[in-house]
């Protein structure tokens, strides 16, 4: 009898998969005022933190995140290491900042324990997902299917609950949009399956329709269609975007 676990296929003890560490290390740095200023395609190749307009602040945060990924550090250690660096750089508490788009002077929230927790969780989850996607592409001949699974949250978004146990081929277009995490605080994950495991789960599912809603970026004016159930800005597979960006770079070099 085939045994199935409810735990993700990755662990950070004693260390992360090399793809995860490499994905984050290879990101450039992009100072920004708002998360709305950076498109998902940019997030896949550049690290950014809202209200971090100075490169030294972005660099400090990225270095400590990289250290956390490489050494498997918990949030408490990440915060302990980073907070004094940010305070020295003057990026802590609130400060008056001028919005470069609107020209409005606002009281901006810079560093805080809550912000650091969001930064830590968001970047580690997306790095894990991107690293896992690289591994999925490399091993898809032996493990050709993915199964959508819910995380350990007490409450789940209805659209995410609807996807639980969905089994689709690795290369199904569905995963270009619905590769977890799919929103702020989302803990969903995917499990890679063999043909035998997929059959034991009831076989391959029908590729579902992906209804969308219109989202207008109030800062750039760009209008896009975001799948219902996914937070704006999370509607791209970071690993897939990263691989496509690398392919474009390689093709450019060859030309």
What does this structure look like?
By secondary structure, the chain is α+β, with helices and mostly antiparallel strands. Helix content is 40%, strand content 15%. The chain has helices at 18-25, 40-43, 55-71, 75-88, 113-139, 158-163, 174-177, 195-200, 238-254; strands spanning 28-29, 46-47, 94-98, 105-109, 145-149, 167-169, 189-193, 212-216, 223-227. The strands form four sheets. It has a three-stranded antiparallel β-sheet with strand order 6-5-7. A two-stranded parallel sheet has the order 1-2. A hairpin with a 6-residue loop joins strand 8 and strand 9. Helix 4 (75-88) packs across helix 5 and helix 5 (113-139) packs across helix 9 (238-254). The termini are far apart. The relative contact order is 0.15. Mean pLDDT is 88; it is low at 1-14.
Layout of SSEs?
Layout lengths: L17 H8 L2 E2 L10 H4 L2 E2 L7 H17 L3 H14 L5 E5 L6 E5 L3 H27 L5 E5 L8 H6 L3 E3 L4 H4 L11 E5 L1 H6 L11 E5 L6 E5 L10 H17 L1
Parallel strand pairs: 1-2
Antiparallel strand pairs: 3-4, 5-6, 5-7, 8-9
Helix pairs in contact: 1-5, 3-4, 4-5, 5-9
Record keyword descriptors for this entry.
15% strand, globular, 255 residues, disordered N terminus, three-stranded antiparallel sheet
Output the helix-strand order. Answer: HEHEHHEEHEHEHEHEEH
Let me know the largest β-sheet: 3 strands, antiparallel
Euclidean distance between termini CA atoms: 52 Å
Strand order of the largest sheet: 6-5-7
Number of helices: 9
Helix content: 40-55%
Envelope shape: globular
Structural class: alpha+beta
């Amino acid at each position: 009898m085939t045994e199935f676990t409810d735990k993700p296929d990755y662990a950070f003890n004693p260390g992360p998969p090399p793809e995860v560490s490499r994905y984050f290390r290879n990101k450039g740095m992009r100072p920004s005022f708002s998360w709305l200023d950076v498109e998902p395609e940019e997030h896949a190749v550049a690290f950014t933190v809202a209200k971090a307009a100075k490169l030294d602040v972005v660099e400090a945060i990225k270095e400590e995140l990289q250290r956390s990924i490489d050494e498997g550090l918990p949030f408490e250690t990440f915060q302990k290491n980073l907070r004094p660096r940010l305070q020295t750089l003057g990026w802590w508490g609130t400060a008056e900042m001028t919005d470069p788009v609107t020209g409005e002077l606002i009281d901006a929230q810079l560093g805080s324990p809550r912000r650091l927790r969001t930064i830590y969780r968001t970047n580690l989850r997306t790095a894990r997902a991107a690293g896992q996607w690289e591994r999925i592409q490399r091993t898809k001949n032996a493990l050709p299917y993915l199964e959508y699974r819910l995380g350990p949250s007490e409450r789940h978004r209805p659209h995410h609950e609807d996807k639980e146990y969905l089994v689709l081929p690795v290369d199904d277009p569905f995963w270009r949009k619905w590769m977890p995490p799919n929103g702020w605080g989302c803990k969903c994950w995917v499990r890679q399956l063999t043909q035998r495991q997929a059959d034991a789960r009831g076989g391959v599912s029908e590729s579902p329709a992906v209804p969308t809603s219109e989202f207008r970026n109030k800062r750039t004016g760009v209008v896009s269609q975001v799948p219902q159930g996914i937070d704006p800005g999370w509607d791209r597979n970071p690993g897939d975007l990263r691989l496509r960006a690398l392919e474009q770079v390689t093709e450019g070099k060859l030309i």
